[in-house]
Amino acid sequence: MYVKRRYSFWMTFNWSKWPFIIGILYNLLICATSYFSGIDLSLPWGPLGVIGIAVAFYLGFKNNSSYDRTWEARKIWGSIVNNSRTFGAAVIAFVNGRNQEEIRKELIYRHVAWMTALRHQLRLSKEWEHTENRLSGLYAPIVCEDYNNKLDSELSQYLSKNELEKLEGKTNMATQILKNQSLRLQEIRDKDYYDDFRHMELHQLISSFYTDQGKSERIKNFPFPRQYASVTLWITLVFTALIPFGLMDIMIGKEPWMIWMCPFLGGLITWVFYLMEKIGDYSENPFEGTYNDIPITSISRAIEIDMREMIEDSEVPPPIKDTNGFLM
């Protein structure tokens, strides 16, 4: 997530410069061929304009749908924030008895372990996501989530060695951690640390965590329908391929030098349409670990800070800082 007021123009252009460069070269080739060969390659701009309008509407549909996926993901993690704070407050208020401080800490730490496992599972790459090397350069966003081979070391900070060993080989660690949390809450209830009413309130919070996890997994595991994503790319390609022919229809018959405006104008139109397509493409998958995703690492850290401060824990970690304006 980008946290500064706006992207700079050069950052935006560097991210999407190749359609502009290729568009200029392609338009120059068509215009030069027509000019030097004397062959009129122009096509009526009217029909091409209609195609352009249709493409723009389709791009708008795709971008709206992609934004909906991103915003839904943010709402899900907003729910995790609220329910986690409620869980922490409930643990502090409900659990009373011998070793209450140790039990409260255990429950809080296990919840942080659940968030950690869920975050790592959501960052695992899918074949429809962007897994290529990240951009680099002066004006490029170069930040991505570095999550590989870190799960076990992070979980070891919150779970006992015995519990961690039992999680090895599990397909969905986050699910198993919540199951262990539920079993532990039942054990505590059986020892009369709280009554049945309070136990049911805590169990309802476990249920809400499962619900939020399932919603996150639905977005992660079900891609934006590929027929919509693919058609957007191909119709944009068809339209931009016809642009120089339509521009010559407008320029021919005017000042001779104006035909040489076609390559720049064609490249600019190509850039605008592909920029819109690319924004939608990079907004489809809000958990893939790139620089415009939902900052679940930062959100998880904020929740951890709140919950550990509730139990007056020592060595509470600091908030995640943005890097070059990007917060992960």
Note down, in words, how this protein is organized.
The chain has 11 helices and no strands. It has 328 residues and is mostly helical. Helix 4 (100-123) packs antiparallel against helix 11. 67% of the residues lie in helices and 0% in strands. The chain starts with 8 loop residues before the first helix and ends in an 18-residue tail after the last helix.
Supply the helix-strand structural class.
Answer: mainly alpha
Alpha-carbon distance between the termini? 6 Å
The structural domain count equals 1
In terms of per-residue confidence, which ranges show pLDDT below 50 for 5 or more consecutive residues? none
Strand % is under 5%
Radius of gyration: 27 Å
- Count of individual helical segments: 11
How many β strands by DSSP? 0
The percent of residues in helical segments reads 55-70%
Topology:
Layout (H helix, E strand, L loop, with lengths): L8 H7 L1 H21 L7 H50 L5 H24 L27 H5 L5 H7 L5 H18 L5 H26 L4 H26 L10 H20 L14 H15 L18
Helix pairs in contact: 2-9, 2-10, 3-4, 3-8, 3-9, 3-10, 3-11, 4-7, 4-11, 7-8, 9-10
Summarize the structure.
With 328 residues, the chain is an all-alpha fold. It has helices at 9-15, 17-37, 45-94, 100-123, 151-155, 161-167, 173-190, 196-221, 226-251, 262-281, 296-310. It has one domain.
Task: Considering the chains and any ligands shown, give keywords for the structure.
328 residues; mainly alpha
